Each structure stands twice: as C-alpha cells, then as structure tokens.
Amino acid sequence: MSEKSERIVGAAQADSAGAVFGEAERSAGDVPSRAPSPRCAPPEALLAAFDRKVAEESRIEPGDWMPDDYRKGVLRQMSQHAHSEVIGMQPEGNWITRAPSLHRKTILMAKVQDEAGHGLYLYSAAETLGTSRDDMIAALHAGKAKYASIFNYPSLTWADVGAIGWLVDGAAIVNQVSLQRTSYGPYSRAMVRICKEESFHQRQGYQIMMVLARGSAEQKAMAQDALDRWWWPSLMMFGPHDSESAHSAKSMQWKLKRESNDTLRQRFVDQTVPQADIIGLTVPDPELKWNEELGHYDFGEIDWAEFMQVISGNGPCNRQRLAHHIRAKDDGQWVRQAMHVFEEKHRARRQAA
Ligand code: FAQ
User: Fold this and answer.
1) Pocket of ligand 1 from Cβ distances under 6 Å
2) Which are the contacts of 224, defined by CB distance < 8 A and separation ≥ 6?
3) Which of 83, 132, 252, 276 has its CA 20 to 30 A from that of 145?
C-alpha cells in the first residue's frame, strides 16, 4: 500500500462517510450508525456484527469493521464502475465537435461532463476503502482493472450518440437503481445522485433517436443502424449469465449486488422493446417474442465469445480507449503539479502567518 493510500485509510477510519460526500448528500433515513467499531472484539463477534448490519439493511460505513473479501469486492466493483464512467466519455466526446447544432452540442457537453462527475464521486467513494485514485488508475492502465465492455465499440454516426444515451445509459440506470440499496454506504449514496443524472441522459438519447426516426428515410436508416450495432453490446453490459457469474453469489450475500445479472438484463429488455416500437425501430433479434405466460420478452442468445474477447482487451477499440486515457493523464500532469505547488505555497503562508 502506498504512503498516500495509508493516509487515506487512516482518514477514512477516523472520519465519517459524511466527510466523503457531505451531510447534504444523505437522506434522512440514510444516516450511518456512528457507534465506534469494537475493533478489539474477537473476529467472530466482528463478523457477526457485520452480518447483522447487512441483514438489517444498515449501511456499512468506511470506519466499520468489514471482512477483507468484502472490502476487496466493493473496491473491485466500485473502481471498475468509476473507470467505466470515465472511459465512457470517449465514444460520445468524439461527437462534441460534430454535433448537428449548437443546442445539441451544449447538451452533449453537459452530459459528458456529468459522466466525469460520476467517475469522481465513485473514485472518492472507493478511496474510503483504503486505496488511492492513483492506484486505481494505475491498475486500469496496467490492464488489471476492467471497465464496461460497451465502451470498446466505436461511435460512427450522430445516431450512435442517441443510441448510447437511450440504450447504454438506459442499461446503466436499470443496474444502478438497484445499487442505490447496495450495502456499502458511500457507494449507495453516490448511486442516488448518479441515477438522477443518468435518467436525464437516457431521455436525451431517446429523444435524439425519436427525432431521427421521424426524419428522412436516410435519418431513420441511421437510427436503425445505430440500434442494430448497440443492442447486443448493451445486453452484455449486465455481465455473464448468473450461472457463469464468478462474483454474484458472494456479492448478493453481502447485498453489494441487489439483483442478479440476468434479472436486470430481462428488465432492460422488457422496458426497452416497447420504446423501440413507439418510435418505429426494430430490435435486431429474430428470436425476440412476448411471452404471455411469463409476462416477459423471450430473447436470443448473446454472443458470449464476443463478450469474452472484449473484456479480455480485444474489442474493436480497447487499445485506443486505454491509449487515449493514458495520454490524457500524461497531458494533464502539469496541471496537477501546478495545483500541488499552489496548495503548498498557501499552506506555507498560512503556517507563517
Ligand atoms: N464489461 O462475476 P461477474 C455507465 C467482468 S456505467 C466488462 O458477473 P460482477 C454510465 C467482471 O468485472 C457502466 N467486464 O461480475 C455511462 C468480472 O471480472 P473480474 C458500468 C465485465 O461484478 C453511460 C467478470 O466479468 N456499470 O455505463 C462486464 O458480479 C454512458 C465476471 O463477471 C457498472 O459498473 C462488462 N459488461 O457483475 C457512462 C455497474 N460484465 O472483476 C458514459 C456496477 C462482467 O473478476 C456513457 N457493476 N464483467 O476481473 C456491476 O453491477 C457489476 O460489476 C456487473 C458485473 C453487473 C457489471
């Protein structure tokens, strides 16, 4: 653990989660218990207290005792989530200079900035677990930490910006609404705010698609082509089938995950297919069919070989996405240095006064 990480663990343990997101971020029913953890209690008692908190739907807070595997599990998921938000800026960022009007450009810029903000909340929330943002980013750059597979597909046309908002943000919300009840306090509070913004993102994407679908034959074809290319990768966002999901059993037991990959994927399909119908677009799945008995859509099998390729670093844009992130970090190094020097200068002045 780096010196900076150790400082962060110390701060997180000594301080409350309110210091991470501020008191204003908490809802009335979401106030963490501030009773100090009985750190000198025997391990079985600590584990029993942790299990009880999880069972009674209390949030686990940064200063609370938690099993090491839980800490690692939350950190893995939160850091991957943070990386997804930030890498996810690239496909849409690609269209900021080419948006079809000033109005669309300002909306898209605000949306992409929101994603940066989501990354920042999540990195801050993850830092409460005793690692630094620098360490998390180093793991991303070394290929040790993943980010959502969807962002390794190219955004080829303006309709792709619509499809990303409609489908990718749409899938993200379905997942994140359930994560508002995740057991780790800072993560669940970050999700409340993020969901509000993602919901706006989803609508703006759908509205782009609606306008294109109502437009000329060429515009409608562009919208259909975007749906054709983004549909299956959106379904992959929910991860492997429950039967193949390495982390689900533990994560569900800890209430880190509240609903399974397949349950969330089905919910996304059920809510999105009627939206496609309304704007006259066709979901590219010949096996898609309403199942009256189950009250759900049946749908075709995902290409899992493609999914595995993408999450192993071999998707269409994996290398480009990481190279861009590394370049942007290097290019911003002088800004971070200048900020540290400025901070030091002011601290020295305050101390001298
Ligand atoms: N892509 O055992 P499971 C957004 C990996 S935010 C890449 O089922 P788990 C906003 C998984 O990490 C989108 N890797 O894993 C936005 C694990 O590998 P590991 C991000 C994936 O964690 C919109 C292995 O496969 N949202 O889009 C994927 O229980 C527009 C085994 O899988 C979140 O991160 C995948 N799709 O379930 C931004 C939500 N699926 O770690 C910009 C939080 C699985 O052992 C523009 N995360 N893997 O090396 C979660 O809910 C979960 O982590 C899942 C995966 C559901 C993603």
Assistant:
1) 76-77, 80-81, 84-85, 88, 115, 146, 148-149, 164, 168-169, 172, 175, 236-240, 245-248, 251, 257, 261, 311
2) 213, 281, 282
3) 252
